[in-house]
Amino acid sequence: MKKFFASFIILALFSFFVFLVGWPQIKVPPKSYALVVSKSSGVSDRIVKNGEFSWFWQFLLPTNASLVKFNIEPYFSASKTFSSKLPSADFYRASADTAPSFSYNFNFSISMTISPEAFLELYKANKVTDQESLTRFFDSAADYITQLAGNYFVKKHEENPSFHPENIRREDLIRAIQSYKEYPELEIITLALTSYEMPDLSLYNQIRNHFDASEYFAGQNPANQDEDKTNSNTNSGENNE
What is the pTM of this model? Predict the structure, then answer.
């Protein structure tokens, strides 16, 4: 009887040990997830989630399996800026009495996330490998979205000088820029315009038309000056010959 109980206890302890080894859930912090990557089976399609039971036999083989942990909560958040100038903006600005700004500046607040399943697909595609690379992925996406949104506002303003970008709803802006074509995995939580600056197109066109109509502009236009210097250098070379 003693041998039976001893064998039972040993078997129970061994079973418990096997269970713990193959139970990766206890290694995943709250609000985090993990992928099981093993030499024998590659990347598992089953995602380890805290609070949800999972067991993997791959961990029973020494050094065979490992966990790739990642956190998508809280959401990735960033402040991004889009800036651009109208053609020859600095020249026209210096020529005006009031020194107006002929620049576009849009400041955005962006937050986004992805689903655990999307992370799995990104990992399989070698686009992310860990938490750090996921952050870089988010940041690159935020830059891309900022560029699209900024260009969209510039185009709308050039089409209609009385355009007010703050009147565009988040859903309409996301639909217009179509960032999902490049980043289909992303879920944009926030895309808010926090501040902006747009040029006075009427004044810009007035100053530009003034110089376009004058002979003075031909001598002062930096592009023409560079062309004159080039022609001068060419002529000097020909005279030396």
Answer: 0.78
